[in-house]
Specification:
By secondary structure, the chain is mainly α. It contains 4 helices and no strands.
Length: 105
């Protein structure tokens, strides 16, 4: 547990509730999404002559000014979907770059 705490809690002895919450969210996100994603990519692409190679992974970090959830929650899972679909109700400043990056080969 000490190794996990050192990886996510950047300052030993941290007690501020907001900083602890952010550390927990980083740890939970990695555990719930990143570990499984990278494991799956390895399984699919490690096969010799894999027809599924190459694989691409992205990290979406743009938080729309129109996001209704609390700021501390950051960017949520599937927040990128409106940008891919071009939903007009979202903050579209990032849309042109995101669509071209999403579809680039």
């Amino acid at each position: 547990i000490n190794e996990i705490m050192n990886a996510y809690v950047t300052q030993p002895g941290i007690t501020d509730p907001q900083e602890l919450r952010q550390a927990y969210l980083r740890m939970y996100t990695d555990f719930d999404f990143a570990v499984g994603t990278f494991h799956e990519v390895e399984l699919v692409t490690d096969r010799e002559n894999s027809p599924y190679s190459p694989q691409y992974v992205y990290r979406f970090t743009y938080r729309s000014a129109n996001r209704l959830s609390e700021q501390w929650k950051g960017v949520m899972h599937v927040d990128e979907v409106p940008y891919v679909s071009g939903a007009p109700q979202m903050d579209i400043k990032a849309l042109p770059n995101f669509v071209s990056n999403w579809t680039a080969v």
